[in-house]
Amino acid sequence: MSYSNYSAKLGSIGSMAIVADSNPPPMPDENGRIGWSWTKMSAGSEKFNYYYYAGTHESVKVKDVTSLYFCGSIDKWTDATSEAPFFVVYTKMKGDGSDAGTWYHSRHAFILHKGSQLIRASEKCLFYCIGEPIDDLGGARKIPFKTRIDTGAYDIEDEVLYVTLQSDSGAGAGASVYAECLGMDMKSFSRRAGDTHIKMNLLS
Fold first, then answer.
1. For residues 2 and 100, what is the distance between their CA atoms, to the nearest angstrom?
2. How far apart are the first and last CA of the chain?
């Protein structure tokens, strides 16, 4: 499988929903690459949050997600984990007193374990978590994010609310991430569909 079933162009209504509260917003890449480039302009809490899956009207459970990934590069790398982006899965509120957030039940971040992975600044790679994606995106070097950090209980039966790719607000000024596509693979979660896949091209 090597095709895209979604695209988001900077400035479009669709891209605004994905970019959401990112500060500063992503920009066209100064090196002429087709995707979105984000650079932290100053010290402080600046970060990006790309909301690329919303499960509000679906019943995807944590156990149904087989891979999350993005193809792109970490354009500034000084061997600090905070310079790498990370994936987050938010689950739907239950309203029974067990919710860990004001708008989500639990939050599960998948981050780089830099002690086991080689990162090179500006190298286009396929970064992923949970499992390898079905699409190898042309043979880009694969880098797994192996560490999971849970806010709230981790329960594979919980339903997914959002999936995001985020940067770390603790990164220093100049931190820079380029993203060309965002993806998600899911097992069948409904009688209406078999296995499903999201591969979203980011266009500038």
1. 38
2. 24
Please say whether the beta carbons of 7 and 200 come within 8 A. yes
What are the angstrom distances between the C-alpha of 156 and each of 63, 99, 192?
5, 15, 21
Residue 183: inside a domain = no
Backbone φ and ψ for 96, nearest 5 degrees, come out as -110, 15
pLDDT exceeding 90 applies to what percent of the chain?
89
Q: Does residue 94 surpass a pLDDT of 80?
A: yes
| 9 or 137: which leads in pLDDT | 9
- Is 193 part of any domain? no
Residue 73 belongs to domain spanning: 6-178
Domain count, the chain: 1
Q: Which two tokens stand for residue 165?
A: 């790719």
Token pair for residue 18?
A: 């994905």
The band of 2, judged by pLDDT with boundaries at 50, 70 and 90, is low
Considering the domain boundaries, does residue 70 fall inside one?
Answer: yes
Report residue 139 CA to chain centroid gap.
Answer: 20
Considering the domain boundaries, does residue 62 fall inside one?
yes
Q: CB-based contacts of 35: which residues, under 8 Å, 6+ apart?
A: 29, 72, 178, 179, 180, 181, 201, 202, 203, 204
